[in-house]
Write a structure and sequence with these properties.
Length: 159
């Protein structure tokens, strides 16, 4: 009896394949970049890609505290709410929090870690989000976060 090998027809997606990592260098001190992530008034200035800018942000900035943000599409579509729980806060170098959309069709809860390293007045941010249920959702988030980080760069330049 021959053994059946389903792996040939159904490739396994490893967790690394479903992890999003983005590294960006900002021309700003890390205290300012950290504040951009942790001050709701600053968050609404940059969160969301240009097509879906944030219109509301709230945070209970402590381990176990909740955060919530509303993105509003420019085309008049439905508001997109996201939120989660802070797990670790180490000013100004690290944030770890959960992330989930309020709409079930947007995927499972993921974990985000942000590390900030300063060198000569610039900050290298390493953003990591995992584990996505599909690679296509990971790639969709890459587009959204990249657009947000473009706006973050602009907001930091104006601060």
């Amino acid at each position: 009896m021959a053994a059946r090998n389903n792996l040939a027809t159904s490739p396994v997606q490893e967790p690394e394949d479903r992890t999003l990592v983005i590294t960006r260098v900002f021309n700003a001190p890390r205290t300012l970049v950290f504040k951009a992530w942790t001050d709701p008034a600053a968050v609404v200035k940059w969160m969301g890609p240009r097509s879906h800018p944030a219109v509301h942000a709230e945070q209970d900035l402590r381990p176990g505290g909740a955060w919530r943000i509303c993105l509003r599409p420019n085309d008049g579509g439905r508001d997109l709410w996201q939120g989660g729980i802070f797990h670790e806060i180490v000013p100004p170098e690290r944030l770890i929090f959960s992330f989930a959309w309020d709409h079930e069709d947007k995927g499972l809860e993921t974990l985000i870690s942000i590390t900030l390293a300063e060198h000569e007045g610039k900050t290298t941010m390493t953003f990591r989000q995992s584990v996505f249920d599909t690679m296509s959702r990971r790639d969709s988030h890459r587009g959204g976060w990249s657009g947000s980080f473009d706006r973050l760069e602009e907001a930091l330049a104006q601060a």
